[in-house]
Amino acid sequence: MIQAGTGIDIFHEVIMSFKRNTLAASIALALAVPLGAQAADSAELAQIREQIKQMKESYEVRIQALEKRLQQAEVIAGNAQAKAEKAEEKIVQSIVAPAPSTSTGTFNPEMSLILSGTYANLSQDPANYRIGGFLPNGGEIGPGRRGFGLGESELVVAANIDPYLRGQFTLAVTPESTVAVEEAFVQSLGLGNGLTVKAGRFYSGVGYLNERHAHTWDFVDAPLAYQAFFGGQFKDDGVQLKWVAPTDLFVELGAEVGRGSNFPASNRAKNGSGSATLFAHLGGDVGVSHSWRAGLSLLRTSPQDRTYTGAGVTNSFSGNSRLEIADLVWKWAPNGNPVNTNFKLQGEYFRRHEDGDLTYDVNTANNTDRYASAQSGWYLQGVYQFMPRWRVGLRRDQLDGGSVDYSSNSAVLGTEAFNPSKNSLMFDYSPSEFSRFRLQFAQDKSRPEVTDNQMFLQYQMSLGAHGAHKY
């Protein structure tokens, strides 16, 4: 029989044991909860820190990209601001200067004067200069006179005639003190649809260098190809139609018909045209630092009694002449800003076919027989502005005498097999956009028997209105 006290003691022991176990469990639980929470917090904090790190790296990349875009935008905005300032200046000038009208005293044309001078040191007599293997063209070829001399000076007068037409007149004074009308034309304004019409005397739009005046050239003289195939430059009296397409890519198409009064044509006394040209130019930008322009041109003429002097007598050619030209220009300027440094690569390729009759010694022998030729030439030049106002340039000229058939006149005119060439190196300094000083060295192998070592010192000054140069 169990006693009452003993049962109570046992119950008491059970209660105390339960309390001890509960207290131990509570203490263990109280200790376990913070440790679990701390572990969970540490994992979450590590995850948050990793996310912040990734976001920071991502934003740094995006910020760098935005900073680069900002720099490019600032350059573009600076160029746009400069253009806007020029446009504003023109607007102010148009307000200050009254618009052209028929009233006396209100005509205010743009006037400019180009002054040029040269000192030439030549190892060969320029009086004997010729381009071997090519028919003489009577144009402005060769290095000019030895010693000091004036270059070609130009007086330009231009103005808007009315809201529909603009006129320009250019008078040239040669080093020999002769005066000639270089250009005199009217040009349409606001025809719309990208169309422009020009009529009068003007430099043709064929090729790249042809329609640019000498004071905008990068070298003292024209390339040999221009001298051999154009006698310097091709200009004519006629009409030009030009169209620029409304596209992001620059597309320019043009056609001309003219009198045909200059080499390779001849001044024919006839109704109609004596020359016709077609040309197409494409161009555009590559990124923000590069731009380009390429073109193809065709010139067709039908010279009649085109005379030239050779072998001490006067000869003449009548027939057909076709000249094809391919040109390419590539320009580079960091971020589109050419002020500090820039580079221009320029080249043209010429190929001419002529077929007709050649008369040897018009006044005496008067021997007429077939003449045919296929000749070509090219030049390639690069000009680098290595610091503000200073440039250096290198040009290579090469002609290919090709095939020439004089028929029975070969006995007296010969079939000279020769490929003329020339290398030129120039340095120039431009105190401003209105003045330039140039030093040029050249090794001219235009004649088969001699090499002409040339050195030129040149100055060019622009007074008065100074329009923007073509691309």
UniProtKB/TrEMBL annotation:
Residues passing through the membrane, by range: none
Keywords linked to the UniProt accession: Coiled coil, Signal
Coiled coil: 49-90
Top-level taxon of the source organism: Bacteria
Organism of provenance: Sulfuricella denitrificans (strain DSM 22764 / NBRC 105220 / skB26)
InterPro entries: Porin_dom_sf
Name of the protein in question: TonB-dependent receptor
Signal sequence range: 1-39
